């Protein structure tokens, strides 16, 4: 478990506290269409305000590439944040450094909250520029990082700022790190990892790290096709990285050496194309027709995976098992997700899931709320599972030592 300070270690009364959060939410018609990320950081902001802090909220939205872009302004998020904070007023500054940001910060009284404009309107943010970080630091006396979803980015508000002010993790950051540590550093065993998604090439580091740590590894989605092909199966017109066959075999060999069981599909749902309502049918994995593609695990595989989870104590899930966005190719993911959720709800399994597609799949299956923990992070969750050092976490650890 990383060693960092939390809100419990800060005296925040009457102090200006800079809080880095992730409000990078989907927008529609100038308003947030999904407030999940806003709702998840509200407890930290609310706790600081209740303790008498003068809270200054920092975030980015989209990729404006270092200059102001109207559609990426955080202004529409201030009213949404007020709702998540139970009606607490949120002031807004039309810049994140400069005269207006300074004026808005100076006017704050104990328990009040302000939101500054998009950090990425300034080129210094993504460049991790020391001068920009100092300009941000000048607005506050303490720094709280509650943006685990950005922890893999060495950006000024994530990395440099944590080295300029006394720094601590917010409640969401604390929860993310606690649950991930429980999943991989001190798990209840047997520990199973379920990894899906389209391509092996994007998750090579992940697979390499996991086979050394877990007791069983379920490989699904398009990436399973590469492993199946590497073992000699015909996969028709399925998405498959045939050039990575040797790499796939190396992963399998490493898993065998580490006594990590690899679970691959034994049957599949196939069709000639990925369209809703396609004439799909189930085939044995050794009998995929030449002109068809694998778009989901089959019912036999789904049932076997559900049974396998009954013998596990911890599950880490990243990536769907099929093309779940397009029925009927959501069935396999739904069956396994509901099995994991039921076991979690019964206290028999600790389930930790993360990644954008994964979270969407769990919501699609109607079970996200029953998992032990669902991470709001995508890239940071993946890089943590890969065993990489996250700059945002490293900065908090360094701040705690300092």
Distinctive features:
402 residues, alpha/beta, Rossmann fold, 6-stranded parallel beta sheet
Biggest sheet features: 6 strands, parallel
Helical amount among residues, as a percent range? Answer: 25-40%
Structural class label: alpha/beta
**Which word captures the global form?**
elongated
> Number of helical runs?
15
Assembly state = single chain
- Can you identify the CATH class of the largest domain? Alpha Beta
* Beta content: 15-25%
| Whole-number tally of structural domains | 2
Strand order of the largest sheet: 5-6-4-1-7-8
Count of DSSP strands: 17
**Unreliable runs:** none
CATH topology of the largest domain: Rossmann fold
Write the layout of secondary structure elements.
Layout: E1 16-20, E2 27-28, E3 31-32, H1 36-50, E4 54-58, H2 77-84, E5 90-93, H3 99-107, E6 113-116, H4 123-126, H5 130-137, E7 142-145, H6 156-160, E8 167-169, H7 171-184, E9 191-195, H8 204-210, E10 216-219, H9 221-230, H10 245-257, E11 261-263, E12 267-271, E13 281-284, E14 293-297, H11 299-310, E15 314-318, H12 331-345, E16 350-353, H13 356-365, E17 373-374, H14 379-385, H15 391-401
Parallel strand pairs: 1-4, 1-7, 4-6, 5-6, 7-8, 9-10, 9-15, 10-11, 15-16, 16-17
Antiparallel strand pairs: 2-3, 12-13, 12-14
Helix pairs in contact: 9-10, 11-12, 12-13
């Amino acid at each position: 478990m990383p060693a960092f300070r939390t809100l419990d270690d800060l005296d925040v009364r009457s102090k200006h506290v800079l809080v880095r959060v992730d409000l990078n939410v989907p927008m529609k018609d100038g308003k947030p269409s999904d407030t999940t990320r806003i709702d998840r950081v509200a407890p930290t902001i609310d706790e600081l305000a209740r303790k008498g802090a003068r809270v200054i909220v920092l975030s980015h939205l989209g990729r404006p590439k270092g200059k102001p872009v109207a559609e990426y302004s955080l202004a529409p998020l201030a009213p949404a944040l007020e709702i998540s904070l139970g009606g607490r007023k949120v002031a807004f500054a039309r810049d994140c450094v400069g005269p207006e940001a300074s004026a808005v910060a100076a006017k704050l009284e104990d328990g009040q909250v302000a939101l500054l404009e998009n950090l990425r309107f300034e080129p210094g943010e993504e460049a991790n520029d020391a001068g920009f970080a100092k300009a941000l630091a000048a607005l506050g006396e303490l720094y709280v990082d509650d943006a685990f979803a950005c922890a893999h980015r060495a950006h000024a508000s994530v990395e440099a700022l944590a080295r300029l002010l006394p720094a601590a993790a917010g409640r969401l950051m604390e929860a993310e790190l606690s649950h991930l540590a429980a999943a991989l550093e001190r798990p209840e065993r047997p520990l199973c990892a379920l990894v899906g998604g389209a391509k092996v090439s994007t998750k090579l580091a992940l697979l390499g790290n996991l086979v050394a740590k877990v007791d069983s590894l379920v490989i699904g989605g398009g990436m399973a096709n590469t492993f199946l092909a590497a073992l000699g199966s015909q996969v028709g017109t399925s998405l498959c990285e045939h050039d990575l066959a040797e790499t796939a075999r190396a992963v399998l060999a490493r898993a065998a050496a580490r006594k990590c069981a690899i679970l691959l599909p034994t049957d599949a749902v196939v069709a000639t194309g990925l369209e809703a309502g396609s004439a799909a049918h189930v085939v044995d994995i050794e009998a995929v027709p030449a002109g068809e593609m694998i778009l989901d695990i089959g019912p036999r595989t789904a049932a076997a995976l559900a049974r396998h989870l009954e013998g596990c104590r911890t599950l880490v899930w990243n990536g769907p098992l099929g093309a779940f966005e397009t029925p009927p190719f959501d069935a396999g993911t739904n069956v396994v997700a509901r099995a994991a959720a039921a076991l979690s709800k019964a206290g028999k399994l600790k389930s930790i899931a993360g990644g954008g597609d994964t979270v969407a799949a769990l919501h699609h299956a109607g079970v996200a709320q029953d998992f032990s923990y669902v991470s709001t992070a995508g890239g940071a969750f993946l890089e943590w599972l890969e065993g990489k050092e996250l700059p945002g976490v490293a900065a908090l650890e360094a701040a705690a030592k300092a």
